[in-house]
Here is the input.
Amino acid sequence: MQEPTFFILTALAEQPLHGYGVIRAVADLSGGRVTLRAGTLYAALDRLTEEGLLVVDREEAVDGRLRRYYRLTDDGAGALSAEVDRLRANAAMAAARLRRTTRLAFGAGR
Here is the structure.
């Protein structure tokens, strides 16, 4: 899963959000590392909706413009959960290798 997709799904894990809300949430969740432009976001939202990971929760008119709110589906929550598990496993493996490397480096110097 690409990092922007991970953060979009994460942003929608707690509550439905409209596009600008997703952009702000992704920026906050990523510590500013992931910045989504509107065109990129809406293409991703359309793709994730087609894949069944998101649905349109509701639409409302604000200042004459339609604001569409998206929410995570059960499949979307499952995909996010699987990605969290994958990332945890990868991080644990990397941490274990670093610990072994550090032990070997410090143990060899004694």
In short: The helical segments are 3-11, 19-29, 38-50, 74-108. The chain is about 60% helix and 15% strand. The first helix runs from residue 3 to 11.
